[in-house]
Fold this protein.
Amino acid sequence: MAKNFDAVIVGAGFGGMYMLHRLRGKGFSARVLEAGTGVGGTWYWNRYPGARCDVESVQYSYQFSSELEQEWEWSERYATQPELLRYANHVCDRFDLRRDIQFETRVTKATFDETANTWLVETDRGDKFVARFVITAMGCLSSPNTPKIPGLADFQGPTYHTGNWPHDGVDFTGKTVGVIGTGSSAIQSIPIMARQAKHLTVFQRTANYTVPAHNKKLDPAYVAKVKASYREMRARAKTKPAGIDFDINYASAIETPQDERTRKFEESWNYGGLGFMASFVDLLLSDESNKTAQDFVKAKIREIVKDPVTAEVLTPRNIIGCKRLCVDDGYWDTFNRPNVTLVDIRDEPIERITPTGLRARGQDYAFDCLVLATGFDAMTGALLKVDIRGRGGVTLREKWGEGPKTYLGLTVVGFPNLFTITGPGSPSVLTNMLPSIEQHVDFIADCLETLRAKGVSVIEPVEQAQEMWVGEVGKSASITLRSTCSSWYVGANIPGKPRVFMPYIGGLPAYIEHCNDVVAGDYKGFSLSE
Ligand code: NA7
């Protein structure tokens, strides 16, 4: 027997939890379906050593409840995964959310019934749910990418993926370890694994830029100050493209005299974190300006890494900030350790995984454990894993065959009453996820309330509005350097994935304005029907 709800929410991370809270508050019935055994999403799955947020904790937090803001105490500038997971659980219990979340349940299929105007949602446990609305809150980086390297199944030791790490942790003490990948997850975990392991061999395909986090314990006086001025800080953050309250220097890098420019980069470097890219306003707009930042970081690598050959291999060749900038704690310095080896596989892919390690560049490397820090099928991966069928039985996979197309990153033509929190075409991964999630959830909750008041049962974007939005997403992407390299933003890390710059890069303030206009225009761009 199918169970009936106003809405089925898929995923119990920060998006799914807040969505449930908001719908309950408006008197809608909702059930959250979550594959894991607990809440937290990204912070539930990514338990690798060193996993932590690259947005400062006081900003990477919910703002919908002042009581929550006041009672929760962040302990570090950048919260670790365990602290973020504790926070997620605290929110879940504080707002009594758990009773409407069904854990260990993976949604496998969602089919729109055009006669009843309802969705039928099916799970790997054989459940069936009928709901007017389906709201996906599956995360943007939640479908781990395991590359199809020949022989992967032959390896006799344990293999760990950073995006699906064992819950009881892994002790690498005395072990030899091979790591594939040098993205953010690798850059966070390598320094810690290197301190534990007997030997660590890092296989690098693309050298990456990283800046120091300068993480620290938070001073209680600072926390008190933040708590006293949360509203102002949140309001300032909403005026910034990334939804993060940090200072942007509106000068051009290339037009700034060299001494002054270096002083500014040095200041940002010493402060730490993603704000480095805000050292100058045009770092992602002008090749020449970007090059000044590249040169600054390259000099830092040469300064920190003692062996010039290793330093050269670690030196990125692409645009800084094009792939997501990483934030680290002692990454470059780790390569000065005698128990760490770097293997450059840029020109020659790994030949195969062997029972005892792997073969690359004509050489065999042996290790006890293998760590895949190989990232995710970003933004569309989790959505397309579910067999989602809209009008006429058309699947989302078919609809997005040439890349994702959405209206506002929230809705898709042909898929009525389906909402995608932080979906492709929304600012999501280019912003502080928490305010972006809250804005989407508020939009959806208000929309459902309006539909109920109007006696409308179906909402769906119209083709023209979706085309306009897809055009807007593409146009804004083409202005920046960010769309020019082989990153997961464009799907380049997944063989065969269409190359489309997926997030909306116009900034959170512009995006919010678009959404507000749509609402003010009586859900302009949508067709509403009874
Ligand atoms: P990323 O940033 O996608 O990094 C994955 C890394 O794995 C990257 O260095 C890849 O090299 C490498 N990779 C992937 N497949 C292979 C194969 N087949 N062979 C060798 N190397 C490979 O994922 P993360 O988990 O580190 O970070 C994801 C986001 O989480 C991050 O941006 C933050 O937003 C938080 P490539 O660069 O593709 O050459």
User: Anything to note?
Assistant: The longest helix spans residues 433-454. The chain has a mean pLDDT of 97. The pocket of NA7 is lined by residues 141, 147, 149, 162, 180-186, 205-206, 324, 345, 350, 373-376, 488, 493 (CB under 6 Å). The chain is about 30% helix and 15% strand.
